[in-house]
Write a structure and sequence with these properties.
The complex is a heterodimer of chains A (267) and B (380).
Chain A (H helix, E strand, L loop, with lengths): L1 H13 L17 E10 L2 E11 L4 E5 L6 H8 L7 E6 L2 E3 L8 E4 L11 H11 L5 H10 L15 H13 L5 E5 L7 H16 L3 E6 L10 E6 L2 E6 L1 H8 L4 H15 L1
Parallel strand pairs in A: 3-8, 3-9, 6-7, 7-8
Antiparallel strand pairs in A: 1-2, 1-4, 4-5, 9-10
Helix pairs in contact in A: 3-4, 3-5, 4-5, 7-8
Chain B lengths: L2 H17 L1 H24 L6 E6 L2 H17 L3 E5 L2 H10 L4 E5 L11 E4 L4 H22 L25 H26 L2 H6 L5 H28 L2 E3 L8 E3 L9 H23 L5 H18 L14 H4 L3 H13 L8 H26 L4
Parallel strand pairs in B: 1-2, 1-3
Antiparallel strand pairs in B: 3-4, 5-6
Chain lengths: 267, 380
């Protein structure tokens, strides 16, 4: 396993624009691993040769403009779509693996909840889909996202932000150790946003690995590590301090542009 | 197939429809209203009002014929007036003063004589009814002029009684088509929402298999299809008389259409068709991006079935070119199967009915398999 990891680190290092992750960390077994992932839709390449390891218990921010391949990457990692080349592993299991899905939570970009059902019914349904039959898990998940008093409300009548919260509850109702959140805070007001990030931090502290995609740079500040994506490629990776230092700017938005520029020069 | 996950999907589908009042209305009230209206129209359709205008171009010879013709028409409660020439008769028909004109030609009585009938022409089926009345009067007149009396013609059939209830022969086709149509629309739209609302994507990110999703849908919608068919059949076949209460006159609920066979057998046939419609809806939702596009499948998918399955036109009268397609329409087999049960009183031992049931089952199963193959594809 160690030699594998080394090999992958080496592959990553050959990609000129990608910084190796945390060279000082004692590399535990990665929670998520991408090995030469490529996804093409006809002539369009959505993800172009991504290789990386993500360590457990951390929050990773997948940042990039619209259409940079964030959702496709998440769908590749969760096994929702077939890789054209390469493969993904989650908790050491090669994806796609149906059995492994019980260890993964996936909050889609759209709410992905049933508007005609109540909040609790939605959570209960997804719990059942994951094989969780204990109703306390449902109550807990609903309470965790602060919808305890809205459990019996029909989802269609919840506010947009509350629907996002419910969507989050449905994604973690089965206590998955790995969580993929595709733009979880879109349409969520700043106050709720803080609430979301508090949840994410609590989960990470409990050992869960979280991958959050966003195109809002200020959310990046809350992640342990950032992966900058552009046009299907990872153009930079590191903690926000690393990235600021490397780019020589204080502002992550500016830093992103610096990496974009560097990528274009390299190309 | 995991029973717990399957049960969760069925329960969810049922919860969703139960709360969707317009859909419930579409499933239960609309078919009742439609069958009620169709039955009312067919049963209570009126005899056409025939107002004849006669043009006599045959002079004295024509007057005698006209007299006989008039008495024949009057025997059928048809009034007849006169016009001096064809142009005047045409004007009368144009103005609505007469509905049909009879022109007695100058050569009346000779072998070459042709009696011309003039109608408005805007409404072919109305015209046909007018022509039929006049034809009958002409035949009666000819017979009475010859001093003969025509025998009464009576029509009997091997199955059923043809004249008893005019709606009876159509009832099977109407029931089959309505059940198919509404279940298809509901499933199609509902599954499309699953695809576009992101819930299918999310469901595919759980250990739920696509087979479970499709079977769950079939069972969930199948439950409502069963209820729908049961309600519709009860309505179509049953009659409950409500006695007069106070100022309310007595009335009856239900169409009370007579059926020769076992209602449960008919129920089975419609149910199989409806289950096929569930799978068809799932399958076709793959090709739709919006709910409007599901509606656009109605002319593409439903119209051929409607035209080719014997609902409207008897299969035997369809052009030869279209005959091979008749066998491809699931509704054909349901209509035929239901006619076997309704009219011929066929039971499950009838080979014809068995064949219909076998085809319907095959269609339901194959659409289900195809439908489940489309589930993972293009989940975006």
């Amino acid at each position: 396993m160690a030699t594998d990891a080394a090999a992958i680190e080496a592959t990553g290092a050959t990609d000129a624009s990608v910084e190796p992750a945390e060279p000082d960390a004692p590399t535990p077994e990665p929670a998520i691993r991408a090995v030469g992932l490529v996804k093409r839709f006809g002539p369009v390449t959505a993800v172009e040769g991504m290789t990386f390891d993500l360590a457990p218990g951390r929050i990773y921010g997948l940042l990039g403009p619209n259409g940079s391949g964030k959702t496709t990457l998440i769908r590749l990692l969760t096994g929702m779509t077939k890789a054209t080349e390469g493969h993904a592993e989650v908790l050491g299991v090669r994806m796609p693996s149906r059995a492994n899905l019980v260890r993964i939570g996936y909050m889609t970009q759209s709410d992905g909840i049933y508007p005609a059902l109540t909040a609790a019914e939605n959570a209960r349904f997804f719990a059942a889909a994951y094989g969780v039959r204990d109703d306390t898990a449902v109550t807990e998940a609903i309470a965790l996202v602060g919808l305890g008093d809205r459990a019996r409300t029909i989802a269609a009548t919840l506010s947009g932000g509350q629907r996002r919260l419910l969507s989050l509850a449905c994604a973690l109702v089965h206590h998955p150790p790995v969580l993929f959140l595709d733009e979880p805070t879109v349409g969520v007001d700043p106050l709720l946003r803080v609430q979301f990030w508090t949840h994410f931090r609590d989960l990470a502290d409990a050992g869960d690995t979280i991958v959050v995609s966003s195109h809002v740079m200020d959310e990046a500040d809350r992640c342990d590590e950032l992966l900058f994506m552009r046009a299907g490629r990872m153009i930079a990776r590191g903690s926000r301090e690393d990235l600021r230092a490397q780019s020589g700017t204080d502002d992550l938005e500016a830093a992103f542009l610096v990496f974009v520029g560097a990528g274009e020069v390299a190309a | 197939m995991n029973p717990h996950r399957l049960r969760a999907i069925v329960r969810r589908v049922v919860q969703e429809i139960r709360r969707d009042r317009p859909s419930l209305a579409l499933l239960f009230i609309v078919p009742i209203a439609m069958t009620g209206l169709i039955t009312f129209i067919v049963r209570e359709s009126q005899a056409p009002t025939v107002e004849v205008v006669i043009v006599n171009e045959a002079g004295a010879r024509g007057i005698a014929v006209e007299g006989v013709l008039r008495s024949a028409l009057e025997a059928g409660d048809v009034t007849a007036t006169e016009a001096p020439d064809v142009a005047a008769a045409r004007t009368m028909i144009e103005d609505g003063d007469a509905s049909i004109g009879i022109v007695l030609p100058a050569d009346l009585g000779e072998d070459t004589a042709t009696i011309t009938l003039i109608t408005n022409g805007l409404d072919p089926s109305g015209d046909a009814a007018q022509v039929a009345v006049v034809r009958q009067a002409l035949v009666d007149a000819a017979a009475s002029a010859a001093g003969a009396r025509l025998p009464t013609i009576s029509h009997v059939t091997v199955y059923g009684v043809p004249s008893e209830d005019p709606i009876a022969p159509y009832a099977p086709a109407i029931v089959a088509f309505l059940a198919y149509f509404f279940v298809f629309i509901l499933t199609g739209v509902s599954f499309l929402r699953e695809r576009t609302g992101g819930t299918l994507e999310r469901l595919m990110a759980t250990p739920v298999t696509r087979g479970e999703v499709v079977v769950g849908y079939i069972l969930g919608f199948g439950l409502f299809a069963t209820l729908q068919v049961a309600v519709l059949m009860t309505w179509v076949l049953g009659t409950v008389h409500v006695p007069a209460i106070g100022p309310l006159p007595e009335f009856s609920i239900g169409l009370g259409i007579a059926m020769a066979g076992d209602p449960l057998t008919a129920f089975l046939v419609v149910l199989l068709l409806a289950l096929g419609a569930v799978s068809l809806g799932i399958f076709l939702s793959t090709f739709a991006r919006t709910e409007l596009q599901i509606m656009q499948f109605i002319p593409i998918v439903m119209t051929p079935q409607f035209l080719l399955s014997g609902v409207l036109f008897p299969v035997s009268t369809l052009p030869d070119v279209l005959q091979p397609f008749v066998g491809l329409m699931p509704v054909t087999f349901a209509v035929d199967g239901l006619r076997q049960v309704f009219v011929a009183g066929a039971g499950l031992s009838s080979p014809v009915l068995r064949w219909d049931i076998a085809v319907l089952s095959l269609v339901a199963v194959s659409f289900a398999v195809i439908g489940s193959l489309t589930v993972r594809r293009d989940v975006v």
